[in-house]
Structure formats: C-alpha cells, structure tokens
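User: Hello! I'm new to structural biology and keep hearing that structure can be predicted from sequence alone. Could you demonstrate with GntR family transcriptional regulator? Please show me the input and the output so I can see what each looks like.

Assistant: Of course. The first part below is the input, the amino acid sequence of GntR family transcriptional regulator. The second part is the output, the predicted structure written as tokens.
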Amino acid sequence: MTQIGTDSEVGLAERAYVSLRDAILAHELRPGTRLSVPVVAERLGISRSPAREAIARIAHEGLASVTPNRGAIVADLAEDDLVEIYQLREVLEGLACRLAAPLLTDADADRLDSLVTQHASAVEANDVERHYEVDSAFHSAIRDVAANSRLSSSLDLLQGQVRLGMYRTHRSPGGMQQALSEHRLILASLRLGDAEVAEAAGRAHIARLLRDLRTVPEPVAT
C-alpha cells in the first residue's frame, strides 16, 4: 500500500478504503493478514480514525472478517464460500441481463461491443490481468444499463469477493476464450431485446464458471 496525501477526514477515509481494497484484491495483503488500525494508519500516512473507517468498510464488503481479540483480518474464502457466491451471482447477473435487454440503446450496445473487442485483444495476448479487468467492466456496463442501484451494489460486493478468492481457484484450459465467447452471446441476446433470452445467456455464463470451480483440477477465469 502506498501513502496517500492530505485531505479532509472524509476524503482520507475514502482514499484509504480504495488503497486498502486494491491491495487486498491484488493479493498484496494475503488472506489471514491482520488489518491493525495502527499499522494501516502508519502505512498510509494517515490518522487512526480514517484507517478505522476504511477497515470497517472492507469488513462490510466481506473482504475481511472481524474476530474477537484479533480485530479485522483479510478474509480467507474457502471453495464452499465461492460456490455460494457463484450460485447467488448466477441469479443476479441473469437478472441484470433481463432488466438491461429492453433498455439497451445503440450507445450501450457500442460500449459493450468495444469492451468485447478489448477482451478479445487481452485473450489473444494471454493477458490474464487485462482479461479480469475488461471482463469486470463488461458486467458492470450491463448493470449500468439495467439501472437498478441495489442490484448493482449487490453484484459489486460479490465481484470483489470473487477476485479475493481467485488465489484458491483454477484456470481451466481455454477459460478466457470461453468467457469471451459467452460475452459475445450475452451481447447478441441483449441486442435482440428479449428479456428471457438475455437472462438465460447471463445465467449460463456464470453457471459454467461455477461448474469449472467445482470440477477443474488445474491452475477459473471470470
């Protein structure tokens, strides 16, 4: 984690939260790492109050757990946790596609098409980190079209937990290419404007990831 500049108390807490979250999702802070308020405050060059608030937000998002006598520690998600996350995500991503289909504009479709093109470039370059980044942006763009803030918030929380648990998952051979193909099918279904078809495509994508999580034996991409 890098130190952050001076700002208002609210601004410091927000920037501390972003820095801490980024470090956790990048696995710079590994599962099981204790998030001590004094240590976090010192590392970020801030007072304890914004550090405490940032840690509380991280815990609220499920990226850390709070235990008696130890305080907050970076969450260690087991495979069973990830199965539950993907089961819930399958339903919610499907709902996002269902809501987005009748609302999709030409501009929305162009934005999603651009993300698919970027995704293809990442897959061709075998750039795993870029794949994750564009994949996440694709799903986020669909949530924007769906225009349901509570749905978006719920999926954002789940996506963060998925990224945290990636160190436990495996990448299936051809997984990135498969995800790209599924994104193309989702976009095609959204262009049709058929809510049921779009929901089915969204759910099928996450269901496949869940199957990979449960069955693939080697080092699942999403």
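User: So the tokens describe the shape?

Assistant: Right, they're a compact way of writing down the 3D structure. Reading them back into a model, for example: The beta strands are 64-67, 71-74.
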